[in-house]
Amino acid sequence: MFYTKEHEWISIEGDEAVVGISDYAQEALGDITFIELPNVGDVVEQFEHFATIESVKAANDIFSPMSGEILDVNADLEEEPGIINKSPYNKGWIARIKLSDAEEKSSLMTAKE
Predict the structure, then answer these.
(1) Which residues pair with 34 in a beta bridge?
(2) Which residues pair with 95 in a beta bridge?
(3) Are the CB atoms for 4 and 47 separated by under 8 Å?
(4) Are 81 and 73 contacting, i.e. CB atoms less than 8 angstroms apart?
(5) CA-CA distance, 74 to 10, in Å (whole number)?
(6) Which of 23, 84, 97, 107 would staple 68 via disulfide (CB 3.0–4.6 Å)?
(7) pLDDT tens-digit readout, 64-107
(8) How far is the C-alpha of 40 from the C-alpha of 43, rounded, in Å?
(9) Hey, how many other C-beta atoms are within 10 angstroms of the C-beta on 104?
(10) What domains lie within the chain, and their CATH numbers?
């Protein structure tokens, strides 16, 4: 698993990856009340806005850790965005991406970093 400085995470599996926000980020946000998901088929660029998340404290942009095409989104979050608070690394994933540039991984941080 790799991370951005803005606390998004990415789990890479071959040329696909799953993206979400870190436990630290969901805790800082507080109770999540809404998420605007990207559309399947959207092309996203590394470190560019691709989703928006709202909580009782604030609204924040979510940035894509790597470039690629959105293959799937976690539609469960539309009905129950609080899943991210309960399970940010498992059930609270946001999108699955078909990666377009594996070399971008070098711009991300490890958990230790």
Answers:
(1) 54
(2) 19, 73
(3) yes
(4) no
(5) 14
(6) 97
(7) 999 999 999 999 999 999 999 999 999 999 999 999 999 999 99
(8) 9
(9) 19
(10) 2-100 (2.40.50.100)
Taking the chain, what is the end-to-end CA distance rounded to the nearest angstrom? Answer: 12
86 strand-pairing partners: none
For the record, the structure tokens of 78 come out as: 């539309």
The SS3 call for residue 74 is coil
Q: Residue 61 contacts by C-beta under 8 Å, 6 or more apart in sequence?
A: 49, 51, 52
- 108 burial type by CB count under 10 A (0-12 exposed, 13-18 middle, 19+ buried): buried
pLDDT tens-place string over residues 27-71: 999 999 999 999 999 999 999 999 999 999 889 999 999 999 999
Contact of 38 with 49, CB cutoff 8 Å: no
Q: Which are the contacts of 13, defined by CB distance < 8 A and separation ≥ 6?
A: none
Which residue is associated with the tokens 């894509």? 64
Whether this prediction's pTM lies above 0.90 is answered by: yes
